DNA sequence: TGATGAACAATGTGTTCATCG
DNA sequence: CGATGAACACATTGTTCATCA
């Protein structure tokens, strides 16, 4: 049965009816790591700023969960570092994220999968608009 | 605080990160009722057929849940009827759905809200494509 | 098997709390 | 307050079970 397989695959990739917030955030995190953009909290505020006009406020917990998952998946690894240059004045430890050896490759694959899902969602939404609004 | 209010409203309307499957299905059900398209099971198979090319299989339970909610919201009311013309051969009872007095009006309002959400989702998805794929 | 419905389980996400320097 | 993390609670959904005439 082809359909059963397809459902299985989508299940394995964690795809539901629409794209999951987690996947959406991961996509942005990957892009940010590609650009060597700082650490978790910075990415959080960056996304918050970025999405302000869209009325979407990415929750703090989701950002961290997404980062942890990307580490789990072997895409990223972590390094710790003191934020300030002078340890005497700033003890704040931050966590930086980098691609693992095959991380960039894995990331590309993941992005491809997400792209497929994004397109699928776009199709579904366009269809709904066409079908239900005259 | 304006943002808190906005979140509250979206919460009350059941809006999450992306549009909910329930809302999406409700939209189609309303349209089908507008077109006097049969009963629950028929709408289910119709949607299954309709979405086959999209790889989306609307679950049976969601259809019924959506119909029940529309009744709860006072948009639809139910009538029961025997499916076959001859009660001696076919005792299958089916449930037909119709708009209540102000049902059509309520439905229009709901559709407008969903449209807003659909557009918001489309924007978010387009943005993700633009931001993360070169 | 057609048709409707509900119970139950799992998952994703929002909220809150905890910690640390 | 910046930064990271986890606990907990809740809502939406998927799966399974139940029933009917």
UniProtKB/TrEMBL annotation, chains A, B:
It comes from the Eukaryota. GO terms for molecular function: DNA binding. GO terms for biological process: DNA replication termination. Pfam families: RTP (PF02334). InterPro entries: RTP (IPR003432), WH-like_DNA-bd_sf (IPR036388), WH_DNA-bd_sf (IPR036390). This is Similar to Replication termination protein acc. no. P68733. It comes from Pyronema omphalodes (strain CBS 100304) (Pyronema confluens).
């Amino acid at each position: 049965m082809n359909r059963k397989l397809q459902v299985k695959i989508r299940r394995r990739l964690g795809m539901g009816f629409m794209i999951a917030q987690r996947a959406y955030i991961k996509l942005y995190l990957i892009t940010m790591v590609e650009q060597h953009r700082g650490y978790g909290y910075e990415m959080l505020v960056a996304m918050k700023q970025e999405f302000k006009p869209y009325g979407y406020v990415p929750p703090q917990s989701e950002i961290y969960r997404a980062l942890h998952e990307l580490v789990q998946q072997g895409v990223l690894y972590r390094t710790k570092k003191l934020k300030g240059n002078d340890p005497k004045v700033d003890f704040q430890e931050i966590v930086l994220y980098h691609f693992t050896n095959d991380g960039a490759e894995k990331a590309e694959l993941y992005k491809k999968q997400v792209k497929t899902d994004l397109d699928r969602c776009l199709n579904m939404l366009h269809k709904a608009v066409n079908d239900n609004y005259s």
